[in-house]
Design a protein that fits this description.
Elements (H helix, E strand, L loop, with lengths): L24 H6 L16 H4 L5 E2 L2 E2 L5 H29 L3 H11 L3 H10 L1 H12 L1 H4 L7 H28 L2 H21 L5 H31 L6 H19 L1 H21 L8 H28 L6 H9 L9 H10 L1 H23 L1 H8 L7 H25 L6 H22 L1 H4 L5 H29 L6 H22 L5 H22 L8 H12 L18 H5 L9 H25 L18 H9 L1 H4 L3 H7 L32
Antiparallel strand pairs: 1-2
Helix pairs in contact: 5-10, 5-12, 5-13, 8-9, 8-10, 8-22, 9-10, 9-13, 10-11, 10-21, 10-22, 11-18, 11-21, 12-13, 12-18, 16-21, 16-22, 16-23, 17-21, 18-21, 19-21, 19-23, 21-22
């Protein structure tokens, strides 16, 4: 039950890191004689800073509104934003009919191009295996000329490479930077694709070994795309009001529209393979020659190698990167800009252990379902169309239809993932549950569904399972694994979660070799139900949450005082079932106490800016523009400037506290980790607003 914005639950007295070691929450609220909570309304100079219209109504957080009022507010916001965006698109179209497509391409196609190459190449394994088995049956089917273990290693080595890339590049992204990780990924993928295009051997088995290791190299590059694409799509360039409104209303959509390029990669790969085989084979009917098979797979990889080389060039020379959030986090945590925030990683493994369980297990169950579906898609297709067993083109045509169904799921996920009454968590729960039920139906009525009289039913189940995979956990796990963690270790946590997913992908590749088609359905359905359960218990719903608040909460956690934080990051709406009922973190939520803390944080930011400008000979007044990456708005600067004669902190006292450093390390910046000085116990002089 969400608390009212006016409620003040009992909280045991704890040290408040913003002020003196003995300051209580009540004292914090009373330190601002000019900031009367009862007079906080739309006319207050700090109203838009403390209660922005994209998340509040009349000063009340949207999740605290009564159900009927909340429903009306959410629907009004969604409809108003939809009309605004349609109006913008309409005006763009009237100026230039192609400009909306250009804007979409720059933001989402280019942003997700790495995952486009991943979808294209990764899922070509299954497609090409069917062709290789038809052209070289002695190697790929009967194993008389090739080692069966090396043929199986083609899939295993690629997945192992992906796991290595996800973990290592996720770490590098938080340590060295997002740009380094993205450029490195593109170069490694380019190398892997060149190796795949040129793979050769003096024997068939030698070629298979070369092909398998080429997949391994490519896998390392594409593995790094997961944490890098997610974090760069998630992190805004600025913290200005318009940018933050877009982040809160469309953050999930921005990530999913980049991620769904994976689906377009699959679609294009399938289409190109069909076209190339028709060209080089001269038709669609078997038998398929070795020469036509060689040309088909080498040209398909060669085309993508050229595109990936262009991607490396673009990322190095053209792409604009947004590392402000990561840099601020390192700066305020006293971590070298080229260093790694080890302390935050250790804290995440303890304080957010439940979230780690949720994101890793959710991705594990999802990939078992997703790659299990891909691995035995041939089983589905052979039951739907018996002629497909001998005709590669027929199999590929059915795969193309299935990918088209998946794309519908991708786009519908992007449409609804930011709606506050559906959102990430509910979408993931429904997707897991739907797939579990669909595969259970296949397990119970397998004999009936594989008969000719019920073939349409089997076909429906197959396509629905693909749809709910995308309109569900495949999109949401990619987003949530980055969204629920602080910026300083976001890429690392995402990489670890994605690596757990690839272990889930590896399991069906091994298990399905030892069980029949019917048994496979009995196995896979329970992973859908397990995903539903773990999502419900361990995953928080971050739909509509300002991620700056999550980083602000993390500042208290990193200082060892999580109970002193009272903001919306611990609102019941944004916590998991485990965090609410076991850890009881929602008890710290209190809107009035949080508002008082935020006023003081803004005042500290103003004083820091004023002192810094004073050293540089500048001046901070009403007309001063603020930096793009600063959360101090012009209205807040104006408010504190107008009261500066009675509120200005004694700079000499502050300088003495910090050893002449010109900045108090006993205070917090509003959105990042606290500036705690281990060598000083001094306190900031009482604020007077």
């Amino acid at each position: 039950m969400a608390m009212s914005a006016k409620s003040t639950p009992f909280i045991a007295p704890t040290p408040n890191p913003h002020f003196s070691e003995s300051a209580s929450d009540t004292e914090t609220m009373n330190r601002h004689p000019d900031f009367d909570q009862s007079q906080f309304n739309t006319n207050h100079p700090l109203y838009n800073d403390l209660a922005p219209a994209d998340s509040y109504q009349d000063g009340v957080y949207w999740a605290d509104l009564p159900r009927a009022q909340r429903s009306k507010w959410v629907n009004t916001q969604s409809n108003t934003e939809a009309r605004r965006e349609l109006g913008v698109i309409g005006r763009m179209f009237r100026r230039d009919p192609l400009s909306p497509l250009g804007a979409y391409s720059r933001r989402y196609i280019i942003g997700g191009f790495g995952l486009f190459t991943e979808g294209y190449t990764l899922f070509s394994i299954g497609n090409l295996t069917a062709l290789f088995s038809a052209a070289w049956p002695a190697c790929w089917s009967k194993y008389t000329k090739c080692d069966a273990n090396w043929v199986a290693a083609v899939s295993y080595l690629q997945i192992i490479g992906i796991i290595i890339g996800q973990i290592s590049v996720g770490f590098e992204g938080d340590w060295i930077g997002r740009r380094f990780g993205l450029v490195q990924d593109a170069l490694i993928m380019s190398l892997g694709l060149i190796m795949l295009t040129a793979s050769w051997g003096t024997t068939l088995n030698g070629w298979v070994i070369c092909y398998a290791w080429s997949q391994f190299i490519y896998g390392i590059g594409v593995g790094g795309e997961y944490p890098m694409t997610s974090t760069t799509a998630l992190e805004s360039k600025t913290v200005g009001s318009s940018s933050q409104t877009d982040d809160k209303l469309h953050r999930g959509r921005n990530v999913v529209l980049a991620f769904l390029m994976q689906g377009w990669g699959q679609f294009l790969n399938q289409a190109i393979l069909i076209i190339l085989l028709l060209i080089f084979h001269g038709g669609s009917k078997p038998p398929y020659g070795k020469v036509s098979a060689q040309w088909t797979f080498r040209v398909s990889f060669g085309v993508m190698a050229l595109l990936t080389l262009w991607l490396a060039y673009f990322r190095y020379y053209k792409k604009v990167y947004s590392s402000n959030a990561l840099q601020r986090s390192k700066k305020n945590a006293h971590v070298n800009q080229s260093g790694y925030d080890v302390a935050s990683l250790k804290l995440v493994s303890t304080h957010f252990a439940g979230r780690l369980i949720g994101t890793t297990s959710g991705w594990f169950f999802n990939d078992f379902l997703f790659y299990g579906n891909k691995l035995f898609s041939s089983t589905f297709i052979k039951i739907i169309d018996p002629a497909a067993s001998s005709n590669v083109i027929t199999t590929w045509n059915w795969n193309l239809v299935n990918v088209g169904v998946e794309l519908v799921g991708y786009y519908l996920a992007a449409l609804l993932i930011d709606h506050k009454f559906y959102g990430r968590k509910r979408m993931q729960i429904i997707g897991f549950l739907a797939d579990g039920i669909l595969f259970l139906i296949c397990a119970i009525w397998f004999k009936q569904l594989e008969s000719k009289s019920h073939i349409k039913g089997f076909q429906t189940v197959y396509f629905l399972s693909s749809f709910f995979q995308q309109f569900g956990p495949n999109c949401t796990t990619f987003l949530v694994a980055a969204e629920v963690y602080p910026v300083s270790v976001r890429a690392t946590a995402h990489g670890l979660s994605a690596a757990a997913g690839k272990l889930g992908a590896l399991m069906p590749a091994i298990i399905y070799n030892y069980v029949g088609n019917h048994t496979r359905f009995w196995i896979v359905c329970w992973f859908g139900f397990a995903g539903w359960l773990f999502t419900w218990v361990f995953i928080p719903d971050t739909t509509g949450l300002d991620l700056r608040e999550q980083d602000r909460y993390w500042s208290f956690v990193r200082a060892g005082r999580p109970g002193d934080y009272h903001g919306i990051a611990v609102h019941p709406r944004h916590l998991s079932v485990y965090e609410r009922f076991v850890l009881k973190r929602h008890l710290a939520y209190d809107a009035e106490k949080d508002r008082a803390q935020r006023v003081e944080e803004l005042r500290v930011m103003y004083e820091e800016r004023r002192m810094n400008l004073g050293k540089e000979g500048g001046k901070l007044d009403d007309a001063t523009s603020v930096e793009e990456d600063d959360e101090l708005s012009s209205s807040a600067a104006s408010f504190f400037s107008s009261n500066s004669s009675s509120t200005r902190v004694n700079e000499k006292a502050t300088s003495g506290m910090t050893g002449g450093g010109g900045r108090s390390d006993a205070v917090y910046r509003s959105s990042q980790v606290p500036l705690v000085n281990e060598h000083h116990n001094g306190t900031l002089p009482p604020p007077a607003l």
